[in-house]
Amino acid sequence: MLSACAGGKDAPTAPDDGTPGAAIVEVFTPGLVFSPAFMTVSVGTVVRFNIAGLAHDVTFQAVNGAPASIPVTTNQVVSRTFNTKGVFPFDCFTHPGMFGQVTVE
């Protein structure tokens, strides 16, 4: 059984998406996990989902302030900006057991 795991706060990279001052966190899909799967970010952070190899979706639970879900895709980078404080769980419904969470402080 594969599970998703990660440590504490992630170090955002410098902005390069044209959003002045926005921090960026990269999430990769090495196989059947999100890496990192769990992250804590500041309001306004851009999370870039680097979906490569297998096709994945990123489906956010219906929580107030959650960004739009990402449909099944592969070999693309799709960004979502987190502008609301809260906890935003997400899953890949294409691959049961593949999950993660963005906590915005």
Which terms summarize this structure?
single chain; 105 residues; mainly beta; Immunoglobulin-like; 5-stranded mixed beta sheet; globular
Characterization of the model:
The protein has 105 residues and is mainly β. The protein has one domain (24-104): Cupredoxins -  blue copper proteins (Immunoglobulin-like). The protein has strands at residues 24-28, 38-41, 45-51, 56-60, 70-73, 76-82, 86-91, 99-104. A five-stranded mixed sheet has the order 2-8-7-4-5, with no helix packed on it. The chain has a three-stranded mixed sheet with strand order 1-3-6, with no helix packed on it. It is globular and about 30 Å long. The N and C termini lie far apart (31 Å). The model is unreliable at 1-18 (pLDDT under 50).
What is the correct CATH architecture?
A: Sandwich
Oligomer: single chain
The tally of helices reads: 0
Helix content: under 10%
Stretches where pLDDT is under 50 for at least 5 consecutive residues are 1-18
